[in-house]
Fold this sequence. Notes:
Chain A is mainly alpha-helical. Chain A has helices spanning 2-34, 54-59, 68-99, 105-117, 120-133, 140-148, 156-162, 167-175, 180-191, 193-209, 212-217, 228-235, 241-276.
Amino acid sequence: MKSNRTSSIVLHNVLIAVLAFIWLIPIVWLVCTSFSSFSGMNTSTFFPQEWSIKHYVELFHPDSVAQFPQWFMNTFVIACVNCLVSTLFIIMVAYATSFMQFKMRKPLMNIAVILNLFPGMLAMIAVYFTLKTLDLTNSYAGLIMVYSASSGLGYLVAKGFFDTVPRALCEAARVDGCSEARILFQMIIPMSRPIIVYTVISSFLVPWMDFVYAKMILNAGISSKYTVAIGLYKMLDKSLINTYFTQFCAGGVLVSIPISVLFIIMQKFYVEGITGGAVKG
Amino acid sequence: MTDQTNVMPEKEGFFSGFGKALVKGDLFVKLSLIWWGAGYIRRKQYVKAFIMTALEVAVILFTVGFAMKYVPKFSTLGTVKAEKVFNMQTMKSEFNDYDHSFKILLFSLISFVVWITAVVVCIVNVKNVYRLQLMEENGVHINTFKEDLISYKEEKFYITLLTLPVLGVVVFTLIPILLLIFVAFTNYDQQHMPPSSLFTWVGFSNFLSLFGGGGLTVTFGYAFVRVLGWTLVWAFFSTVTTYIGGILLSLLLNSKKTRVPKLWRTLFMVTIAVPQFVSLLLVRNFFANNGIVNSICDGIGLTGFLRDIGMISTTYIPFLSAPGWAHVMIILINIWIGVPYQMLIATGVLLNLPADQLESARVDGAKPFQIFVKITMPYMLFVTGPALITDFVKNINNFNVIYLLTQDVYVTTNQAMANSQAKEVDLLVTWLFRLTQEYYNYKMASAIGIIVFIICSVFTLIAFNYMIKGDKEGTYQ
């Protein structure tokens, strides 16, 4: 009986290990290939024949095609601005819909639900026409606007968190003559750390993860203006792939490390925000 | 601060309240209809009167100076083509005063929005002024301007909070959708590209050619049916496979038998934490015609075997470059990036699985498979049913997976598809993206956009219905 149970546990864990192995093959290949000394795609063996870090070094010596440091800075700036605007919008909307009662509250929330279900992709081409007419394509201003303008629609997670804050706390503050603005800034924000960290990280990650909007807005082909996503994509052009494939892998690894770390931290705060609530007991 | 609600009944229609205010209001209330500041002057709210007057002047200036340049041309979208004219005074060739069709369309639309807003502001204004009149008659204190300002961080704080986010959504989501609808009824394409030439209204002809009408050379109808079919097949399979896979993986990881579950979960999360443009572009080269997987398959003789049984006719396995193969591979690769994500969601839901039910089922001797089918799945479906529909809609528009995996790699050999710039593996959204970005065929892209829109709204409404019914807001408050 005992050995039967042990063998089932072993089988169970072996199954998970096999699955994890399958899931990680491409990632392992990415990391290995990035350390190859060969510039093009290695098509004969899984592991590179000669190991070297020269493509990481090349990444920091930009040429006319690959300008990784520049792309990284561009994306970082866009991400910071977007993070600021989006976080503000989301917290503002979440506070208004969670703590305040007003006539338009329910209708506005219903409209938000409907708009949320419509993928932003569809408004995209019309946004593109408009930005083109206003001469905002190939500019960061246009891209930031596209990322952050509608971000208020993503308020639901933060609102769900705010909903768990006991109403008695706010009532007490109101009775004491505290203005709504002070309740928000001095009471709610300090006690909502997990959800604010979650919001900050998730909006910071948007420009790093996005491909389609950047591809659409930054379409003039000026390498120094690209974000990381577009830059790396262009490296794999048919005419360039044989010279830049390993650099692409190196760049991919360098971008993925900070993003993965942030992503996993974000998930932790998300779970904390969902399960913890603001005030215990 | 006094309670204003007892002066004016809140439960009242938007327009009936306006009618009542107009009929019962005094001269100044009636005058506010024409001069927005009038009512405030009468109640000695001079700053407010000034602001409303300034706003009205701004709307009038906007109408005269801006809107009137574009709106009158809205019915034709412009008649004067851009031409170079020799100017005798400057001795240079200069452009004439030409019409820009897209600017006419866009700015007319903006004008309509501004005017509708102005009408709403006007109505609300009259009602507010009438309320002031009632307050004065009842001897209720009327706020000074300073008190009004303070109220925007007190009981009206929500207005301060919501103005900018709502404005953002209107400008970047609502107006573009309206614009998209307009463009679908014009002939805006590469031959009619402002500023060098004009485009105009063509009625339903774009939709006609999408549904099979039109000439023999352009075969949009043919391509549309195929792309739509694949879009729905893809959305169905990608949603179902990742959903079930996510639940199974999460059950596997959360089982008591699992050692170091946190480590495993993190390993699986790495695949979704890596940005899609890295992971998908990588996988695309992994499975390329001359890629590593093909070398290995050739090495172990799989390629030869497949050729012998007639499944392929090439010297490589066309994982992502032949119809059929590519369709299956795309769904498999989507399982790779979709399952860990669904696993995260399912883990959250499964934590709340009613433990007593599971326990009693186990005591009654139910097998794990029975428990999964009879208890776990129904519970998951109950909780995540609406999410399943939204996932379906998201997959209809799953641009990244299709575009990153097949762009530049997959070349269609079907001439009829190629004529309308479509491929067998395209979703409606990737097709419309290519039409806009590579072929400047905005009219067809917009028409496809509207179709996608309608398909999405049908599913959205179903999901929405569920959500409103299951609205548990307030139970925690």
